[in-house]
Backbone:
């Protein structure tokens, strides 16, 4: 169950391009309640950052701004 919810939460917090201290603290608390260890949380946070970066690059290219 945690593996389903955490990526969705990461997508929401990365929507503006950054994760604030308050958002990170909230995510860490949720991760603990879902039974994840710190390493799982950090991995999910990094995956969320990479996904946001890929989405931004794709959107940039679609607008033709990347040429």
Residues:
């Amino acid at each position: 169950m945690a593996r389903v919810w955490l990526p969705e939460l990461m997508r929401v917090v990365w929507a503006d391009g950054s994760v604030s201290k308050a958002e990170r603290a909230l995510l860490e608390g949720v991760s603990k309640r879902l039974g994840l260890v710190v390493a799982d949380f950090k991995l999910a946070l990094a995956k969320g950052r990479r996904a946001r970066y890929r989405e931004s690059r794709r959107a940039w290219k679609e607008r033709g701004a990347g040429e």
